[in-house]
Amino acid sequence: MVEQEEERIEKESPKKMTKKKTRLEELVRRFWEIEALHQTPGDGSPSSVEDKRAIKLWSTTGQRVQGHYQFPIPFRRQPPCLPDNRALAERRLLGLKKRLSRDTRLRRRYKEEMKKLFNEGFAERVPLRQLSKSGGNSWYLPHHPVLNPNKPDKVRIVFDCAAAFTKTSLNNQVLQGPDLNNKLIGVLMRFRQEPIALMADIEAMFHQVKVNPEHRDTLRFLWWEDGDLTQTLMTCRMTVHLFGGVWSPSCAAYALQRTFQDFGDGFSDAANREKSNFYVDDLLLSVTEPKEAITISRQLRHLPSLGGFKLTKWISNNKEVLNTIPLESRHTGVKEVNLGCEDLPTERALGVMWDLNGDQFAAKVQAPTQPATKRGLLAVVSSVYDPLGFICPFTIKAKHIFQDECRRKKDWDEDITKQTLHKWLRWLEDLKSLRNFKVPRCYRPGGLGCATSSQLHDFCDASQVAYAVVTYLRTVDNEGTAICSFVCGKARLAPLKQLTVPRLELCAAVLATRVDQTIKREIGVPLEESVFWTDSMIVIMYISNLEKRFHTFVANRISAIHEVTEKAQWRHVRSRWNPADDATRGIPVEDMLKECRWSDGPSFLSLPEKYWPKKPEIRHELENDPEVKLETVSLATAGNNADAIMKLL
Fold this sequence. Notes:
The chain has 649 residues and is α+β, with helices and mostly antiparallel strands. Helices cover 35% and strands 18% of the residues. It contains 21 helices and 21 strands. Strands 19-18-17-20-21 form a 5-stranded mixed beta sheet. A hairpin with a 2-residue loop joins β10 (278-279) and β11. α1 runs antiparallel to α2 and α4 (86-102) packs across α5. The chain is globular and about 90 Å long. Residues 1-15 and 38-42 have low confidence and may be disordered.
């Protein structure tokens, strides 16, 4: 989001640039703003009236046509009233023509992709008798290529539904619909449950959902006969929901849900449960045994297809399972692999590098080349993708370097100071070494028996630089063996306006409760309890004290903690045993590459509870604490009421 904002700024006029820079600075403040207490984790934002309206439209008018679901575009106004914007589409197409004329390779790939749209029935030429159709029901969409550096041979054609003509765009005339996707962090967490992992992808997901015929003229576009730039233009239209439409993600997700709802009864409960493991068009799942994986993969190649969705690009860390996947349905990276003797490759699982051979997650460390300016620092920091917080202790150092530059209030494109440059260059050099940092994908390593109990252990800490939480899953098997697995980490910079360390420690405790709530909702593992650890005795005393009245900042946060935890769940740990301390100060990259408490958890969690740090005696001596409100004492004297009244007269 921040990077997109930067790119737009460079193309704006000076007047607009000032407004855009202000917006960019507002986005940057989110790095270190204290989170609002009302932002508690939940299952998602409640549906708005417009969201409910979109779902009602699809549920009452949707139908299956030729094995695919067909839904209308959820226009705010029915029928839509759109201006004639063909001139805009022609102007944008002229720009595309110049670009394609300069780049032969791009022109060839763009032409191939456009040909596929027509061959697959996703697009069609508008019949001559309908070309003069008017009345506000036609709209022309500009289109352009989108390139993915991770897939250099692939071009995606995106239709610009946000393109405005006389202050009207297709997107602002349409209801967006609710976010029906599963949470990315939840899909990744559940992907780590069991030893056998499978991943697949829905082929052209949006294009598998048809658009009602009466709305297809609002998806018109211009193209050349046979893709020949010297030929006359022809008027075409999409017959399916498309990339770029603000409503398309919700519509496609609804169609997938309807598929499981309408046809799930004919399949196993295990296959039906996997609907919670889709993130947009990606499926990530894990099971206990190869036999179970083979059965589920067969059912999932059939069930979604009843709604027109084809699962392809299958990949697994288990060669026995891979052998049962038809060759044409396998991921390109394993099609040529000799499963009898060759190693499996490294692939991306929702953007996280997954080493299939070692069954480990790895850090993606390719940083873009950027100038040593505040803008350049922000671009690099924002490019580090770490949804589960594996490398928080390393990335927090870069964020702190950026925050220091923001304190100096320099211009976005002014060179950073020499002192900062030295720190920055060293961080960039260390970043290269992180490619060797790996975390086991599965929470339960081989050799562990049947799990009898599981707990979450949330460690929190704060410094003047940052506050952080890191959570581990402690699993005990039927023989009493306990293992500790990293679940996720999260670190936030301390705000520019300095807070006391006790207040920051309390912010860390609140963050720990929120992360814990999210994990419990998403992880899919039966949990016995959650245990919270802090090295701040002040925080322990605040949480344990039910008598004192605190000033607003502290009182609100203690209240938030009490809403979701009991005081008995909170325990004290010394700083040297607290792994969250690593994310509040940062640790050298060489320490992260060794066996360390951040990735492995503190050693005492592998021992029986009697060997854990003892609960200290809680002292309630908070009378002199500046966060405690002073008690007001009212004194009254008794006397002759009649005399007192007479004195007032």
